[in-house]
Structure formats: structure tokens, C-alpha cells
Design a protein that fits this description.
- Chain B: It is found in: Cell membrane.
- Chain B: The chain crosses the membrane at residues 35-58, 97-118, 130-151, 292-312.
- The complex is a heterodimer of chains A (312) and B (322).
- Chain A is an all-alpha fold.
- Chain A has 15 helices and no strands.
- Chain A has a domain at 102-272: Orthogonal Bundle (MetI-like fold), CATH 1.10.3720.10.
- Chain B is mainly α and 322 residues long.
- The longest helix of chain B has 36 residues, at 24-59.
- The termini of chain B are far apart.
- The chains are: A mainly alpha (312), B mainly alpha (322).
- At the A-B interface, helix 2, helix 3, helix 6, helix 7 and helix 8 of A face helix 1, helix 2, helix 4, helix 5 and helix 6 of B.
């Protein structure tokens, strides 16, 4: 990871001069820290600021803690006054129950297949298209980019009815490709990769390779992809989380016999299971994988969101 | 690299004999190869992105039932007139609006405050940033199931805490205002940290000189916040308001899973347009009617974004005139 990770920022309307230097990834690249120049403005946080921030962290984290408490208790414990506030001994029992009642095991596997395929496919498609928009000249470039960016803000939820009719026509209802293929469409991803490559891939590099007789394909795999890798990683992370958590379309396209995690959770919340501790165990199982990703790569995700933000 | 030739939509360069001179097929390829790079994305985009959006308008003019989606009968504006005559449509529209305000306004105000604090010099700032983004990592479904538990009427933790403070238990399911607050609180919890980071990114791109100049003029921290930070943040604020507003028109998972009811409460008291669309399409099997609702939601978004843009332009003109 040598390329600067915050390239998208410079195109921001609000940021003519400097990209956000806050994310740690930018620090690692040896870019001059802005700390020195910021000292004049940026005051040290006082106790009040810390108190409020820690409160915010506690509010953010509490539901997770509560999920663990509730998932490790019994239904009877949860109906007590005062309620139990510490984890209990029933976690494994509740896991077993939810694996049996809602087939969370199959849901986890399906979610892994769906989110993994969407992530790989999206990153590939978006890098290819982003490269073309950033570095190749062709007729209709402006118009195609405008269409892509223009639809970025339109919620895909508005198209679910024709989409459902389409997959019904194809006979894909309740099959994973019904969720995977529409999931590959990411206008944001194309724009993100375009911005990344505009910033971090010098034209001279491509010119030099052309002079050496390299084909565009060769240039793509040997020059563009290595340079784009950090951006691809961030896009991949954001895509994976979004795909794992996607709700509306999977609920429409799949059923409980071929569920993703979210479909299984919808089932759990639909009133078929009455044991609250079992429901919470399912919620915990369904959230753990993405929490794991977040725990390992949280700062990259933070960086990705902050980069994506400034270009807005 | 044999890989390159087989995997990418690339010209087999070796088959074009004069390599550098640019024969006709080679030149033709130069012209068309960019489209090969766009093809994977745009094929999918056309089929699964653009087509459904446009076709929604068409479907909304037909009677289409879920069991026989291939059988379409012309209905003209029948779906729309039926919609306008349905009291639950108006209720859902109103709920979407009130829940939208209840969730968006506190969320963005708190995010702004948090971003301001995160912009201080902080110990453990990476930890703090990551921690407040934690809710963003959870799905709507997971978050809602947990909150539904917390908001339980009889044994929920929220009512217990209220009881400790001396407040009577609240009916978070059946009371209209309370249930909408419950739904909004899930939205607020999931998105405040995300918006705070977006504001933080915006704040960090405000040139430092502006603060130095303000400080030199003797502006207090508060005045700096209102006269430097907020104006500098305007494009970011407009962006988040637009995105949150669009998100609010789409709310679906929260009202669906608060009680697991497709009607959004026993008397539809917290049913949103998104849920109403799902109920019409997949509860009552009226896909044509559901498409009409989708189209109304689209128009609603266009109006809301337009109003937003108008207000933003008005305000900046006002300030320029000051």
C-alpha cells in the first residue's frame, strides 16, 4: 500500500486545496502531517468533549452488549424486573436452538456466497469501467459518466417490481443469482474508482507503456490494477458490508428455504419464534461476521467513508 | 503474460501483424476497446439498474398480480386513482414524513456536534471514530430486532429505565407518536456516526487560514463554529440532508421488524411508504399498484430534493447579501 489512499478528495467542491489528512492511512504514506499547521486552530479536547464522546461510544456499543446479554440468557430471564444486565450461561443452548429453528447455518453460508461474489464482481466491473472513464478517450464518455453519476442517488428500491418480474420470468426466484447479479450494479463504485485512478495514476505511466508496445489489456493488468489496489480494497470493504446487510431485495427475491442472513432474521422477527433469547442469538450470529470485518479493518472503513464523503 | 489475453476483453495483439504501424483493424480496436472495459458494468447496469427504474412507470399503468407477473392488463391511471382513494396511502405518506423528520433532524444535529468534537485534538481518535461508526456495520434487521427487544412494553429495558426515573411505561408499539419515535431511534442510532464522519471530513477540508483570521479578529470558539465551520460545511450539509431525506422516504426494515407486521402496527400507525408498497405487492399481490407507489415515491424524492436545493440557494444568496 504505497499509493495515497485519499485521492477522491481533491475533486471536492468543499476541498479545493487539501484532501482530508485525518485518516491514519494517509499518515502512513509520509504525507506531511497537518498537525503542526492545525495546532493554531485545533484545540485540545477538554473533559466535557471527552465525556460527550465517550457517552456517544457507549450509546453506539450498548445494543451490541445487550445482544450478548439477551442471547446468553433465557426467555424467562428477559421477562424479569429488574432485567438482567450481565451475560448468562445459555449462549450455546440458544445458538443451537436458532440453528435448528431458523437455519442460520445455511443463511450464513448463503450470505457468504452472495456477499463474496458481489464484492469480487463489483470491484472488477467498477475498476474496469473506472479505468475507462479515467484514462481512455472515447465518444460518449461524458454522457455515459453523467448517466452513471445521475442514477447514483436514485434508490434501487424503486425498481424492485420490474426487477421481480424479470427474475420471475428468468425462473430465478429463490435462487442466489437473483440477489447476486443486481447486487453487482454499483454506480458509486464506478465513480469511486474513476476518482481514485484520476488522482493516483499518472498519464505518463500509461504513455510510457504504450510506447513500449503494451496493449491496453496489458496496461490494465500490469499497471492499473497494482496502482488501484488500495482503492479496490476500500471499495471491496464497503461493498461487502452493504451486500451482507442488504435487506429489501433479498427479502423479496428469496424465501426461508434459501435465505441470506437478513432473510433469516426477518423470519425470526416475523413472530414464528417467541423465545426472545433465541431471536437475539440469531441476531448475534448474523452480525458477528460483519463485526469481525469491522474489527479488523475498521480504520480502513472509516477512511473509505471519509474519502467518499468529501467528493459528495 | 498469457493471462492478459484470455481474461481481459483484449485484442489478441499478436494476430495484428504490423505491430506499431496501426493497421485498420488495430485502429478500429483502439476506437472500440474502451467500450469493452465499460461493457461488464453497463450490461448489468442496463438490465438490473436502469431498466427496472424506467419500467416501473410502465408497470404502474397495468394490472399485474404477483402470481401471474407475465399477465398484464391495461389499467391507465387506475392504480393511481385507487391509491389516492386509499386512506392507508395517505397515512403512510404522513407517517413517512413525520418519521422522516423525527429521524433526520436529531441525527444530523447530533452528527454535527460529534464531528465538531472529533475535530479537536484527541487521544485515541482512531478508536473514537471507529467506535461511533460501529452501528453502521449492523444490518437494519439486526438493529431493529435488538431495539424491538429494548422497546418491549412489558419487560423492555427502556421502560424499565423510565420507571426508575419515575416515568410511566410507554406503549412503544401501539401509541402513534411513541411507535414512530421507536422507529426513528433505530435510524438515528445506525446513521449518526456515519454522518458525523462525513461532517468531520468536510470540516478538515476547511482552510486553516479562515480560523486563524477569525481568531485574530477575536472571534470566540462559538463564533468560529457559526461563522467559519458552518458556512464552510454548507455543501456537505446539503449533501447529507439530501441523502438522509432520500433514505427516509425508503424506510422499510425498521417498521417491518419492530413488531414483524407488514401493516406497520395494528392500525398502520407507523407504516411507511416503503412498507406500504411491500404490503400492496407482496402482501396483497398487487404488483401494478406497488409500482404506482414506487413511482409516487420517486416523485416525492424529486420534490424534496428540489425544495432542498431551493432552500440551500436562498440561504446562500441571503448570506452573500449580508
Amino acid at each position: 500500500m504505497t499509493a495515497p489512499i485519499a485521492p477522491a478528495a481533491a475533486s471536492a467542491p468543499a476541498a479545493p486545496a487539501t484532501p482530508p489528512a485525518g485518516d491514519p492511512a494517509a499518515r502512513r504514506t509520509g504525507r506531511p502531517r497537518r498537525g503542526a499547521s492545525r495546532a493554531g486552530r485545533t484545540l485540545h479536547a477538554g473533559p466535557v468533549a471527552y465525556t460527550i464522546l465517550i457517552l456517544a461510544v457507549l450509546v453506539s456499543a450498548f445494543p451490541f452488549y445487550w445482544t450478548i446479554v439477551a442471547a446468553s440468557r433465557s426467555n424467562a430471564d428477559l421477562a424479569q424486573v429488574p432485567p438482567a444486565l450481565l451475560p448468562g450461561p445459555n449462549l450455546m443452548r440458544n445458538f443451537e436452538a436458532v440453528l435448528e429453528e431458523a437455519d442460520i447455518g445455511k443463511a450464513l453460508l448463503n450470505s457468504l456466497i452472495v456477499s463474496g461474489s458481489i464484492t469480487l464482481g463489483t470491484v472488477l466491473c467498477c475498476t474496469l469501467a473506472g479505468f475507462a472513464f479515467a484514462k481512455l478517450r472515447f465518444r460518449g464518455r461524458g454522457a455515459l459518466l453523467a448517466v452513471t453519476v445521475g442514477t447514483m442517488m436514485i434508490p434501487p428500491q424503486l425498481g424492485v417490481i420490474p426487477l421481480f418480474m424479470l427474475i420471475a420470468e428468468l425462473g430465478w426466484v429463490n435462487q442466489l443469482q437473483a440477489v447476486i447479479l443486481p447486487g453487482l450494479v454499483s454506480a458509486f463504485g464506478v465513480f469511486f474508482m474513476r476518482q481514485y485512478l484520476v488522482q493516483s495514476l499518472p498519464d505518463e505511466l500509461i504513455e510510457a507503456a504504450r510506447v513500449d508496445g503494451a496493449s491496453t489489456a496489458r496496461i490494465f493488468w500490469s499497471i492499473v490494477v497494482p496502482v488501484a489496489r488500495p482503492g479496490m480494497a476500500v471499495l471491496g470493504l464497503l461493498t461487502f458490508m452493504a451486500a451482507w446487510n442488504d435487506f429489501f431485495w433479498p427479502v423479496v427475491a428469496l424465501t426461508s428455504s434459501e435465505p441470506t442472513v437478513q432473510v433469516a432474521l426477518r423470519q425470526l422477527g416475523g413472530g414464528y419464534v417467541h423465545d426472545q433469547s433465541v431471536i437475539m442469538a440469531g441476531t448475534l450470529l448474523g452480525t458477528l461476521p460483519v463485526l469481525l470485518v469491522f474489527g479488523l479493518l475498521g480504520r480502513q472503513i472509516v477512511g473509505g467513508i471519509m474519502q467518499g464523503a468529501v467528493k459528495g | 503474460m498469457t493471462l492478459t489475453a484470455s481474461q481481459a476483453p483484449a485484442p489478441p495483439g499478436r494476430t495484428a501483424p504490423p505491430r506499431r504501424r496501426g493497421s485498420a483493424p488495430r485502429r478500429a480496436w483502439r476506437t472500440f476497446s474502451p467500450y469493452a472495459y465499460l461493457a461488464p458494468f453497463f450490461t448489468l447496469f442496463a438490465a438490473f439498474g436502469l431498466f427496472p427504474l424506467v419500467y416501473t412507470a410502465y408497470v404502474s399503468l397495468y394490472r399485474v398480480e404477483l402470481q401471474t407477473p407475465g399477465d398484464m392488463q391495461w389499467r391507465g391511471f387506475g392504480n393511481y386513482t385507487a391509491l389516492l382513494g386509499d386512506e392507508y396511502f395517505w397515512l403512510a405518506l404522513r407517517n413517512t414524513f413525520t418519521i422522516g423528520v423525527l429521524s433526520t433532524v436529531p441525527q444530523l444535529v447530533m452528527a454535527l456536534g460529534l464531528a465538531h468534537l472529533l475535530n479537536y485534538r484527541l487521544r485515541g481518535r482512531t478508536f473514537l471514530r471507529t467506535a461511533i461508526l460501529l452501528p453502521y456495520a449492523t444490518s437494519v434487521a439486526a438493529a431493529t430486532l435488538v431495539f424491538a427487544q429494548l422497546f418491549g412494553s412489558d419487560f423492555g429495558l427502556v421502560n424499565y429505565v423510565l420507571g426508575v426515573v419515575g416515568i410511566d411505561p410507554v406503549d412503544w408499539q401501539n401509541d402513534t407518536v411513541a411507535s414512530q419515535i421507536a422507529v426513528s431511534s433505530i435510524v438515528i442510532w445506525r446513521w449518526t456516526g456515519y454522518n458525523a464522519l462525513i461532517y468531520l471530513a468536510g470540516m478538515q477540508s476547511i482552510p486553516n487560514e479562515l480560523y486563524e483570521a477569525a481568531a485574530m479578529d477575536g472571534a470566540s470558539r462559538w463564533r468560529q463554529f457559526f461563522h467559519v465551520t458552518l458556512p464552510g460545511l454548507r455543501p456537505t450539509i446539503v449533501f447529507t440532508v439530501v441523502v438522509s431525506t432520500i433514505g427516509a422516504t425508503q424506510l422499510f426494515g425498521e417498521p417491518l421488524l419492530l413488531e414483524g407486521q407488514i401493516s406497520g402496527g395494528i392500525s398502520h400507525q407507523y407504516q411507511t411508504l416503503g412498507l406500504y408498497m411491500y404490503e400492496q405487492g407482496w402482501g396483497f399481490f398487487h404488483l401494478g399498484r406497488a409500482a404506482a407507489i414506487a413511482w409516487v415515491m420517486f416523485l416525492l424524492i424529486v420534490v424534496l430534493v428540489g425544495v432542498n436545493a431551493l432552500i440551500a440557494r436562498r440561504r446562500s444568496r441571503k448570506e452573500a447579501g449580508r
